[in-house]
Every structure is written in structure tokens, then in C-alpha cells.
UniProtKB/TrEMBL annotation:
Domain spans labelled Peptidase S9A N-terminal: 11-417
Protein known as: Oligopeptidase B
One Pfam short name: Peptidase_S9
InterPro entries reported in the protein's UniProt record: AB_hydrolase_fold (IPR029058), Pept_S9A_N (IPR023302), Peptidase_S9_cat (IPR001375), Peptidase_S9A (IPR002470), Serine_Peptidase_S9A (IPR051543)
Origin species: Micromonospora rhizosphaerae
Amino acid sequence: MTGVTTETPVPAAKRVPTERTHHGDTVVDEYAWLAAKDDPETIAYLTAENAYTEARTAHLAGLRAELFEETRRRTQETDLSVPTRKDGYWYYTRTVEGQQYGVHCRRTVRDGETAPPVSADGAPLEGEEVLLDGNQLAEGHDFFALGAFDVSPDGRWLAYSTDFAGAERFTLRVKDLQTGEVLADEIRDTFYGTAWSTDASALFYVTVDDAWRPNRVWRHTVGRPSSEDVVVHQEDDERFWVGVELTRSERFVVIDIHSKITSEVRVIPAANPTGEPAIIAPRRQGVEYSVEHHGHRFLILHNDGAEDFALAFTSADAPGDWTPLIEHSPGTRLEAVDAFENYLVVSLRSNGLTGLRVLPVGGGDEYDIDFPEPIYSVGLDANPEYRTRELRLRYTSLVTPDSVYDYDLLTRQMVLRKRKPVRPGPDGRAYDPADYEQHRDWALGDDGTRVPISLVCRKDSPRDGSAPCVIYGYGSYEASMDPWFSIARLSLLDRGVIFAVAHIRGGGELGRRWYDEGKLLAKKNTFTDFVACARHLVKAGWTASDRLVARGASAGGLLMGAVANLAPDAFAGIVAQVPFVDALTSILDPSLPLTVTEWEEWGNPLDNPDVYAYMKSYTPYENVAPVDYPAILAVTSLNDTRVLYHEPAKWIARLRAAAPQGDYLLKTEMGAGHGGPSGRYDAWREEAFINAWILDRLGRA
């Protein structure tokens, strides 16, 4: 099988199909054997698929190299992030031309130094201290990712964790930043999230259960073996997962306990790390809240009787009743609150756009920070200091590269510290945002709901249907696809391609209602909204259906599979990355990673026959039919723990069997996880591969 390149790989015929029966319905799965990751035949099949995909796209090798080179040339490879001040240090990350990963550094704050230091062309700052070099850590490994990077409050210790497989299971270590020594402390199989005690004697961290659900918070004593570590909280309800962090004030260790729709928060005084966690408010089904410490009070962002959330506070000494601070305002979704000594900053969204609201403490009217473009995305960057009058924020749009600003909370003046450099393209011309334009359009959903679409294109792109277009979507978990800038995307735009983002229900762009109307037994709104957006782009003259490629990843990959079944005529091609296309099978198996925690998003088909029937009616793998599908490229990773590799592998196999006249490709990263390749150059090559395939489908190769 591994020698097959020009012929379509065929799954092993000798395999016996599996059957499952739920609620009187029996389903045959002829490709279930592909879930056996350790079976040599599975690996041989995936390897054969990769060889077949490479052979079928060999004619694009030159274009792939061209697209990669365009991204490389436009990127300032040796660069330095805007340093962030914490106590007596500036912290920053450098990248070096030719190296895949960042170098994490710090430098002492010099007398009279108020503005972050800069360097010419990303060169090291004079007097810098290298805390961690990702390139050195990654030596000898095909994959590398950091899970934790957490400097202790006294600046002496660095807690960091590494993953060399892509499975998002990390080994946690502690480095002495005074001596450079990595301590013998080593804790395996940790998850994201750490927090230090005030005196840096204790480090809190998270581990997972057999279903890979983060379920335990531990306390580790620095310098002692991990066998002595103590479980601080264990969450036995399989719907909930846990996280841990230190408040900005460094006064409290916060243990966040969440399901999809319910929250509970416990706190431990950072100065008393062995203390018993105190509950801020016991969990109540359907009530979500988060906690931020501010002086004598805890700020509570919550949805108790407030669909789009409200802000309240309670005593930090004796948490109890909640006193309103910002009342609920339907249509304005409050997403986070950040506390500083003299200011509160609320991250929100309204009318489909993100925003920041400032609340001075002790007097003065609250106000929203204004931004110039009609379509943009703004959010807080790292702001580790509690006593500050400056706010670090990030701003971008479809035409404005990622920009870092410092905003003076007292004078309300905003200073641009850095805009991501975009170097001249292959024609030698510098990037000019004026060469491009962004638009907000609206489609009409099947039920009459207006669905926003964001678009970017070269200026004066034709509106006669002749322009090719890529439409991107996600639409799950209340995650919003806010406008973002992409250097790699310029290669598409400069070849005349329009890029559109469909802000469909299931996301959070228009508040909590927008999310609620695209989940559980309303999930099909996500798919019909996306098709409506695709149809609208054609009707409005942006493109034509034979010039339109759809793209989505993860739950957006489920979207891709669903719309392929729902409206195969609407697209010339579909790119599905790490796609959740066998959703019903996965959600029926509580032993799989994260399944039980997902039931509040999709429903529980094990117990509820209505949920079972509804999911079966849309899940892509179950609904493959002998129809004319558009060309499909599925991209996955062998070590993905969120969407297992066998979902797209089975999907492609079933597509070939049911509709053999179609063009279906499967590409599996054999040493990566959910996010794909880890090194920046490897990620650029992956994007070049996908964009070359897209351009080929659009006739622009």
C-alpha cells in the first residue's frame, strides 16, 4: 500500500465493518478500523494517502515554493516583540532569521526609562538575559510547543513546560534564573495553566484524567520531588474542567471550574498556598461567572439573569452577595474585565465589533476607546502590572497589520509602539493598505436572520461575478472570527482573490443569542447561515459558485463537511482542516477525549433520542451521498487530541466509495497536533500547500 501514489488508496477490504445501535438505529461503520492508531496498517494507509496527495498536487510544487517565498520575503524574520514591563524588567521575545522558534528574553529597566526599548531590525537588546530559547529546546524534535511560561513574582524562577509530539501533554520544569540551572523538579503529563505563590515556594499546575479532561489542580513545592505534590482540587463531574492562574494583583491563586454553561471559582491566598480554597459562589446550572481581584473586592462577570453578561462585585474578605457595577445591556456582550489599581477595563462586543470600556476607580465617567476603521479587532495584550496608568492593547483589521499600542488611561492618548512589518513583495513594492479595501456585507439566512460577512480584496475588484473568492467560517463555542491580518493572505489577494469571513450563528459575533441560536438543537442554523452567505456573495456579484472555495478548521471543519452535503453545488472546492466530521460517533463515546464536556454544546445523543436523530441528520460522515461533491482537501494531524485523525481519514474514504467521481485528498501531518506544524517555516509551508491547492481550484495557479 505504501507504494501507491497515482492510484487512489483503498482501505483494507479484509477489515470487518463495525456496528453500533442506539435508540433502535443500527449504523454500520466500514472504516472504524482506521481509529487503531498503533496498527501498522493504519499508518501504512495514512502514508499512502500522503503519497497520493503529493502525486496529485505535484504540478503545484513550483507554486507552493513561490507562495512560501512570498510569505518569507514579506516577513521580517529577525524581529523583536514590544517589551512588556514587569517590576524591574522588560520581557520580550525575539525571532531570528532561519530559526523556527522564538527566543524569550528580559532586560533590566534602566533609570528614567519609561518607554519600552527598541532595537534596530530586531537585534538583541544590549544587556539582555535569555530565559528560554525555543530553538535549543526543539533540537532533535520534529515538533515543539510551550505550554507554560511563567516567571515567579520575585523574578527568580521560570516555570515552563514542553510538548514534543503535539498531543498537548507537557513536561513541567523549573529554571533558576539567577544561576541558569534547570532544577531536578520534573512533572510529566501536565496541562496548560500555572500559578505561583507569593514567596515562589509553591507552584500550582493542572493535570488531566483518562479522557484527557483537565480535572486536577496540584501544588508543587519547588526543589522537592513531584511524588510529594498535593492535589488541591479534584473535579469529579465529567462535564467540568479546571484551570489555574494568579490574579494580576498577585494576591490570589484562582481555580476556574467550568462546563460549557456553568461555572464555579475557588481562590487561595497566594501568601498562604497551603490554605483551603474558598468558593466565591457555588455552581448553579446555567450560571457562568469569572472572577478578577481588585483591592477589597472580587469583580464578578456573570450571566445570572443577564444573557449578554453583567458586572458585579463582592467582598474579597467574605464573598457573598453580588453588588451590580455594570447592568445588563442586551446586545452588548461583556466578555472580560481586567482590574488595575485605579482603573477597570471591560472587553466587550457590540454590533459585531470588539471594544474596550474604561471605568476609572473613585470618580470619573466610564467611556469607550474609539478606533478609526469600520471593521477591526481590538483586545488587551499582556498587562502584568497592577499599579499602572498605561494599557497595552493589540489592534488589527483585514488591511491593518497587527499593531501594539500603549494607551494612557489618564490622558487618553494612544501611542503606536509597533506595527508588524510587512516587507516588499515579489514585485519590490512596499505594502500599502490603500491598495486594498474591506467591506461589511449582510446575507439573509433561511429564517430571515441577517448574517454579517466581512470581506477584503484588492481595490476596485470587479463586482460582476468574475472574481474568485475564499469564504471562511467557524460558528461554534461562541468563538468569534473577528477580522485579522495575514501576510500569507496577501498572496491570494494579489492574485485577484477576494477573502470573506462568514460570521455565522454558533459564534459570538452578535452576542450570546447568536451563540445560542447555533448550538444543540439549533445547530443547523450554523450550516444554513454559511450557505446563505455563499449564495449572497454570488447574488451580490462578488463571485460565482464555480469560483468560490470554502475553508474551515476544527468545528469549522464540521461546518465544511455539513455544507458539502447540504449545498455541494455552491462551491468549487472545500478545505477542511482538522475537521470534526464524525461528530456523532465521537459524541456517542464518553471514553474519548473531551466527549462528556461537549454534551452541553452539541447535546447528549446517548440519552436523548431527539439529539441522536438531529445530530445524525447533519453530521458529515453519516450523510455522505452519491452526489457531485466539489473537490475536497482534508488536512489533519496524527497526534491531534481534540479532533482525532481518523475522523477525516474515514470521511475521505467514504466520500470516495459513495461518490467516486469526485476529487478528494487527505494530508496527514505525522508528527503534529491540533494546530498543525509547530515551527514557523513549517507552518508557512503548510499554508502555501493549502493556498496553492485553492488557487488551482480557482484557476489562478
